[in-house]
Amino acid sequence: KVGEENTARLLERLQSRLRLDGRDTSELEDVLDYAMTLVTDYAGKDTPQGMIELAVLEVAADLWAKRDARGGILDSPFEGGAPTRLARDPLTAAYPILDRYRGIVFA
Alpha helix locations (H) across 18-91? Predict the structure, then answer.
């Protein structure tokens, strides 16, 4: 659902969001590809493209943060700050964006 023509634009938006402008993007591209796969597999067929892209960016940003979170716990960048536990499910940020377009799902 996310066309290749949009991938370069999403990569630029993700770089900007993560403040990674000008850095090597090979690892970031892998994270974005994984996020696109997760989101497009979950999204309903009637989900607007803009909502899919927003969910991809949210999931990719969370996946990028998890790189530095051993065991799902991210150390605080502040002296004396408490560590933060990150969500284990990579789609946690995408559910509120995508669920309204999935309709009723029977398992």
Answer: 26-42, 49-66
